[in-house]
Design brief:
Rossmann fold; about 15% strand; 9 strands; four-stranded parallel β-sheet; 2 domains; about 270 residues; five-stranded parallel β-sheet; alpha/beta
């Protein structure tokens, strides 16, 4: 069904437990430059990865309601944890398309590299049925996969700590029991981890591949918008980006700083 011009002009909404989803938003802004975007980081309630499934569902619905009030035409759950726990609830309750995320296990397998695949994610993402179904759907040989819950890394990024002594010390602690030389591919199964990619690359030998689901999510967003006839006409107009948070002024400033940093790193991406 063809949509009115007014519906196409509405913004695309993104939400995350905090700042992590900014890494997905940056890719979307590059790939869909004519669109307007509105982002909500639930900083006051971060991190989601240590919460119960019911808590994450309630918080996700609360965030979605805030964004719906701003008249959005689609919602991207730019958070692996919220997708795992709540995307089915959001799709059942919201009157707009909802796009979720999942750890990029399939692309990691398709590369066919020798060595183990390390999946880094929050505890809730790794234990949820959605992730188990993903592994079954991809026919994953679990002997090749290492699952590593990393809740403390999310907390570091939420404090704006993406490099330096504290990050190096935490990475050393997390990987103390991992034979990093046996790993060929690292799946960044939490959007926060993109902000630590430079530090993570120092932990592993040269040649290890890092994969995230951001570009795949944005390509799915574009497909869904096209299917619903909701894509804006591509013009020279540059869309607007509005960043919101449930936290205070320091959280708002962090959103803007990290978005500027990660957006710069997407230059040239289509």
């Amino acid at each position: 069904m063809r949509k009115s011009g007014e519906e196409k002009q509405k913004p695309i909404a993104f939400f995350d437990s905090g700042v992590g989803g900014l890494s997905v938003l940056a890719v979307a802004v590059r790939c869909l430059p004519a669109e307007d975007f509105i982002y909500f980081g639930d900083t006051a309630n971060a991190p989601y990865g240590r919460k119960s499934k019911a808590e994450v569902q309630a918080l996700s619905l609360q965030a979605a309601e805030i964004l719906i009030e701003h008249g959005c035409k689609a919602l991207v759950v730019a958070c692996n944890t919220a997708t795992s726990a709540a995307v089915h609830v959001l799709r059942a309750k919201l009157p707009i398309p909802v796009i979720g995320m999942e750890p990029a296990v399939k692309p990691a397998l398709e590369r066919g590299k020798e060595g183990k695949i390390l999946v880094m994610a929050t505890p809730l993402t790794l234990k949820e049925e959605k992730f188990q179904n993903l592994c079954r759907r991809c026919a994953v040989d679990l002997s090749k996969v290492l699952l590593l819950p990393c809740p403390t890394l999310v907390e570091l990024v939420e404090r704006g700590c993406t490099e330096g002594t504290a990050v190096r010390a935490e990475l050393e602690r997390i990987f103390a029991s991992i034979d990093t030389a046996s790993v060929s591919t690292v799946v960044l199964g939490c959007t926060h981890f993109l902000f630590l990619k430079d530090a993570l690359q120092q932990v592993f030998p040269a040649g290890v591949t890092f994969i995230d689901g951001n570009l795949g999510t944005v390509r799915q967003l574009k497909r869904v918008l096209a299917e619903h006839d909701l894509l804006r006409e591509q013009t020279a107009r540059q869309g607007k980006v509005e960043l919101m948070t449930s936290g205070g002024e320091s959280a708002r400033q962090l959103l803007h700083r990290l978005f500027a940093d990660v957006y710069e790193k997407t230059e040239g991406l289509q």
